[in-house]
């Protein structure tokens, strides 16, 4: 073999080896980028398309919580991914969760709004009608030592007569930080589980849980009460206004010039305080 041929072969071998190493580096880099992009897509909030006001859908439920002095932990990829998995695994519960605290006695405020046309209007005299679409907010204050890292879950059973059309689940938000998850089952069981870092220490905090629902109680002339189980937590249900009576009136007339007698009938109905003639 000639020296030149051997040198050429060595050069080609070295060049091919360098190319293989370069290709391996590029492949590894692309693999790392793919992992980063996939992880980011799973962690970052979903990008939603802009909608016109007519297309915007209102949430059917929501929840917030505030603890004085609470500072959210610095989130890394691992904690963000773990939080995301926990949220995805959260499911509406039909039974009272084991070890959960009933927070009925800690509810401080009930606000109810009724849908009139396309506007939510506060109810007057805590009175609603059967079949009304309502928006309800329950505000609570958890005293010290009730919720802590070893007991992070609370629950509340809505009374009969008000309900959701479907089960709902979502995040409990402290500003822009998620501090827990909640579920509201179709039978009205509200369950809230707080993150360990929020529950840790057992300090007092306040929160609000809200939802859109329907008054399912039939109501009565005297008013049927829905009792939410705490002071001031009572609303009264009355029946929907319907046609209540029908009146018929007959008047006669006589025309002497033609010696004719005629009759005129009037009928009308009474509806919600207004008498209308037809």
Average pLDDT confidence is 77
User: Can you summarize the main beta sheet?
Assistant: 6 strands, antiparallel
Task: Count helical runs.
Answer: 3
Strand-residue proportion: 35-45%
Strand runs, count:
17
Helical content band: 10-25%
> Are there runs of 5+ residues with pLDDT below 50, and where?
44-55, 90-95, 270-278
Helix and strand string, N-terminal first? Answer: HEHEEEEEEEEEEHEEEEEE
What is the general shape? elongated
Distance between the termini: 118 Å
As a whole number of angstroms, the C-alpha radius of gyration is 34 Å
Structural class: alpha+beta
What does this structure look like?
Helices cover 21% and strands 40% of the residues. It is α+β, with helices and mostly antiparallel strands. The strands form four sheets. Strands 1, 3, 4, 6, 8 and 12 form a six-stranded antiparallel sheet that branches. A hairpin with a 4-residue loop joins strand 15 and strand 16. The protein is elongated and about 140 Å long.
